[in-house]
UniProtKB/TrEMBL annotation:
<dbReference type="InterPro" id="IPR006311">
    <property type="entry name" value="TAT_signal"/>
</dbReference>
<protein>
    <submittedName>
        <fullName>PhoX family protein</fullName>
    </submittedName>
</protein>
<dbReference type="Pfam" id="PF05787">
    <property type="entry name" value="PhoX"/>
</dbReference>
<dbReference type="InterPro" id="IPR008557">
    <property type="entry name" value="PhoX"/>
</dbReference>
Length: 464
C-alpha cells in the first residue's frame, strides 16, 4: 500500500472510532511488542467500535461494554483507616484464592494532597510524606470485599510494576532529601508491596535499586533483572536502568539483599529523541555501573559515566516485560525543553539476549492530528491482543488500544473532562492511569488521576 493509502486508512479509522482529533497516531512494527506473549492475538483493524456517550456522564465505552466505580477519593476506606487518598495512578491486578482479585493502587500525592494516605503503624516510611498505596480485594463477581492502606509515608508514588512472585513495586517519582518539604527521610526509592498481606513487606526502601525520580519497573521473569525508567523533568533527562540483584527471583523481600545498578549506554546515541524511524535498531547496547546509586551528592543522571557518556531520554514512563524483551515508553520529547529532537511518543524494545535496542512505535502527529503533548503514559498488554495506552494530555482524556497492525482505536473516554462545547472541562480532572487487566482477562481496571476514581470495565474483550 502506498503511503497515501496508509494515511487515508488511518484517518478513516480514527474518525470511526472517535479517536480523530485526539492527538495520537502510531506507526511501527507492533508485532515485536507481543511476540511470545499471551496477548499475541489479532484483533483486526476496527477495535470494538465507536464510543457510546455515557448517560451518567462518567466514562464513554464501546457498545457492549460497561463499567462500575470501585472506589473514589474522599469516600471512607472500608478498613476505617480514613478517606480514600487522592491522585490514583499506577496499578496492577493479582490473582487471589477462590476467584478473588487483589488490586494495588498508587497515590501520587505531594505535600498539598487533599486526601493523604493515612499513616498506619508498621506500614509507614516517613510520616511527613502523603503518598503510598492502597489495596483492594474483589470477590469472584467483582465486588469490593476490602480496601485498606498497603504502604504509607512515601512520596509521589507514580507507577511501578508487578514482580514474578506476585508483589507490586511502587516507585517514588521524586528525589527530595530529608528536610525538604518537611520530610524526615530521603525519598526517590522503590518499595515492595504485598497485595494480600502488606505487613509481610512493610515500608522498607529498596535502596540498592537507586535513588532518583522513578517512574516504572519491569522484571525479567527468567533472570530476575529489574528494569527501571526515570522521569526527570529537567536536563539532563532521565536514564534507563537495569538492576542485577544478588538474590534474583528470591521472592518477597529478596530485593533487599542488594545488587548492582547500571544505566544503558547506546553507543553513538546520547539522546534517544534523535532516533525517529520505526524499526531503527542498535546492537551492542552497553550497561555502565552507576557510580553512586544513592545519589548522596549528585543526582545519578548527572554523575560521571566516563568519556563515553551515557544515553538520556525525556519523559521515560511506562515499562513492561513481554516475551523475551523489556519495552519502555518515552512520552514525548521537545527540543524547546532541551531534547535533541521532537516526538510525540516512542515505544522502545530491548532484547537482552541480543543486546539489541529497537524503536518499535512512534506516536503522531498524523496528517490530521497536530496537537502536541497528547502523549502515551501508562501502558499494558491488552487481553484481546495489542496494547492499551493511557493518554496524558489536554482536553478529553482517552484510553487507546493499538492492534498488532498499528491501528488505533479509542477504548474509553473521560466524559467529565469534556465541557459542553467540547473543550477541556474542570482542570482538576486528570488523565487516565494504571490500566491493567484481571488475571483471567475479563476485566480492565483503570484509574482517573483526579479526582481519584477506580473503574472496572467488563465486556466482550475477546470479540474478534
Amino acid at each position: 500500500m502506498t503511503e497515501t493509502g496508509r494515511a487515508t486508512t488511518r484517518r478513516q479509522l480514527l474518525a470511526r472510532t472517535g479517536a480523530l482529533g485526539a492527538g495520537i497516531a502510531f506507526t511501527g512494527a507492533l508485532s515485536e511488542l507481543f511476540a511470545g506473549t499471551a496477548a499475541a492475538q489479532d484483533l483486526g483493524h476496527t477495535g470494538y467500535g465507536p464510543l457510546v456517550p455515557d448517560p451518567d456522564g462518567l466514562l464513554d465505552l464501546p457498545e457492549g461494554f460497561r463499567y462500575r466505580v470501585l472506589s473514589r477519593e474522599g469516600d471512607p476506606l472500608r478498613s476505617g483507616e480514613g478517606p480514600v487518598p487522592s491522585h490514583h495512578d499506577g496499578m496492577s491486578a493479582f490473582a487471589g484464592g477462590h476467584g478473588r482479585v487483589h488490586l494495588v493502587r498508587n497515590h501520587e500525592n505531594r505535600a498539598d494532597a487533599r486526601f493523604p494516605v493515612p499513616p498506619v503503624d508498621g506500614l509507614t516510611y516517613d510520616p511527613a510524606a502523603k503518598g503510598g498505596c492502597t489495596a483492594l480485594t474483589l470477590d469472584s463477581r467483582g465486588r469490593v470485599l476490602s480496601e485498606r492502606v498497603a504502604i504509607a509515608g512515601t512520596a509521589v508514588n507514580c507507577a511501578g510494576g508487578p514482580t514474578p512472585w506476585g508483589t507490586w513495586l511502587t516507585c517514588e517519582e521524586t528525589e527530595d532529601r530529608a528536610g525538604t518539604a518537611g520530610y524526615a527521610e530521603d525519598h526517590g526509592f522503590v518499595f515492595e508491596v504485598d497485595p494480600a498481606d502488606p505487613r509481610r513487606t512493610g515500608a522498607v526502601p529498596l535502596t540498592a535499586l537507586g535513588r532518583f525520580p522513578h517512574e516504572a519497573v519491569a522484571v525479567d521473569p527468567q533472570r530476575g533483572v529489574v528494569y527501571e525508567t526515570e522521569d526527570a523533568f529537567q536536563r539532563p533527562f532521565g536514564l534507563f536502568y537495569r538492576f542485577l540483584p544478588d538474590k534474583p527471583l528470591g521472592g518477597p523481600g529478596s530485593l533487599r539483599a542488594g545488587g548492582r545498578l547500571q544505566a544503558m549506554r547506546v553507543p553513538g546515541v546520547p539522546d534517544l529523541s534523535c532516533v525517529q524511524e520505526p524499526g531503527a535498531r542498535f546492537d551492542g547496547v552497553e550497561w555502565a555501573d552507576v557510580p553512586d546509586p544513592q545519589a548522596a551528592r549528585t543526582p545519578v543522571r548527572l554523575q560521571d559515566f566516563g568519556p563515553r557518556g551515557i544515553t538520556h531520554a525525556q519523559k521515560l514512563e511506562g515499562c513492561y516485560w513481554g516475551g523475551r524483551s523489556v519495552c519502555f515508553v518515552s512520552s514525548f520529547a521537545r527540543s524547546a525543553e532541551g531534547s535533541q529532537a521532537d516526538h510525540h511518543g516512542q515505544v522502545w524494545r530491548y532484547d537482552p539476549d541480543r543486546r539489541r535496542l529497537t524503536l518499535v512505535v512512534v506516536f503522531g502527529p498524523d496528517t490530521d492530528v497536530r496537537l502536541p503533548g497528547e502523549a502515551p503514559d501508562n501502558i499494558c498488554l491488552a487481553a484481546g491482543g495489542g496494547l492499551m495506552v493511557c493518554e496524558d494530555g489536554a482536553g478529553a482524556q482517552h484510553v487507546f488500544g493499538v492492534t498488532r497492525h498499528g491501528e488505533v482505536y479509542a477504548m474509553a473516554r473521560n466524559r467529565q473532562a469534556i465541557a459542553a462545547d467540547g473543550a477541556a472541562a474542570d482542570p482538576e480532572w486528570g488523565e487516565f492511569a494504571g490500566v491493567t487487566f484481571s488475571p483471567d482477562g475479563r476485566t480492565m481496571y483503570l484509574n482517573c488521576y483526579a479526582p481519584g476514581t477506580t473503574f472496572a470495565v467488563t465486556g466482550p474483550w475477546h470479540r474478534r
